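Lab channel / #folding
Pinned by the channel admin:
"Please post every new chain as: sequence first, then the structure tokens as a reply. Keep commentary short and put observations after the output so the thread stays searchable."

First post following the new format, from NK:
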Amino acid sequence: MLRMLLIFVALGSAMLLPKGVAAAAAKTTIALTTTRIAGADPANHNLTDSLVALLELQLLADDSLSVVERQQIELAMQELALSRTRSADESLQLGKLVTADLLVMLELRPSDKKTDKPSALLRVVEAKTAAIRGITVATDVEEASLEEIAEQFARYVSSVVREPNTPTITVAVAPFESVGRFDRLRPLELGIRDLVTARLLAFRSPVAPRKGTRNWATYGYALYA
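Reply from TO:
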């Protein structure tokens, strides 16, 4: 009887222990990557590098997230010979190689007008399926606003991670198919694709948006682009 009691106590202790372990294991692994538009202003690349570094610090401060080291991501991209303007299939390869749950993809896009400041687009994508969990955009990006944007983006990523991942209808936004198209039309094609994606994603603001920032989050759709 005593032996049975001891076993029960031991089992009870073992059952209590995994709760703390489970809490630690419940972290969502994030791989933070950047994409670049061919022919973009080199100054935008510097802004992108600064913004991604600040965003990484913000994400590391979130106890519910585990962030893959950027050096590991760079090595994975080299191994897969991936370009920074990668497709969804290539993103899946990257996500599997770095064993991430979500890919957080940051991209700085130039304005149509040369006098205007660029905008920053952030996508949260499921690494296993390439389904877009959410998109947020910050306009008027400049050196002075990078910290504020990084903080806003980090809050957005955290809100997406905490959303219940309910069953969804899968919608695919196919790329443009055109024969002999000019490369200069590629940014326009990408812009239209993202506008269609944004319209399909239900509009809402899960976090208090920064002025000049728009948020889209999935609601009943899982999108591929």
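NK: The longest strand covers residues 28-35.
TO: also worth noting, The longest helix spans residues 2-25.
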